[in-house]
Design brief:
Layout lengths: L2 H20 L12 H19 L2 H8 L2 E26 L2 E28 L2 H9 L3 E2 L4 E4 L9 H6 L2 E10 L10 E5 L2
Parallel strand pairs: 4-5
Antiparallel strand pairs: 1-2, 2-5, 2-6, 3-6
Length: 189
Amino acid sequence: MTQYSRRGFLGTSAAALLLAGCENTVIGNGVGGRGAAQIDARVSATRDYLFDRYPGTRDLAGKAYGVLYMPLVTEAGFGIGGGYGRGALQINGTTVDYYSATRATIGFQIGAQQYAHALFFMTDGALSTFRRGSGWAAGAEVRYATPEQGASLGKETTEIDPVIGLVFGQQGLIAGATLAGVKYSRIIP
């Protein structure tokens, strides 16, 4: 093997191990497991935390056509990194689908972090596009806001920005968290 291919092999292997270690329930996406109950419990706790800690987000959720709650996303990296989490899409407070969030990154990074996030779909079209897609990647169409801004997002903001993403509850050693490049896929827990 050449030195380049060894590096590629080692980097790919490290990324695969990091993703495999992000959550021990990634494998076993079968029907009849306790995965849905676990996701529902985490989503409920995350939603309650978000609404209690940042009261303005309750109004934002009330205006949204749907909200995707991702209660725990774990990211780790050492040059090559990745992240994984599972959550649920709720419409009118009821879970309608379950989703995974995956992300792979390459670049200067060392460390690990965990965080929660929520995507508020402010238009019916944005929600329909998300649900119809086989895999939806967060990008420029998402307006990122802090949870503290939830109350101050006016009607004009929610009409201009069809998807609003809030990242909160960060813990770890990687500076910052963004949803850019995260791919969401429907799962059966």
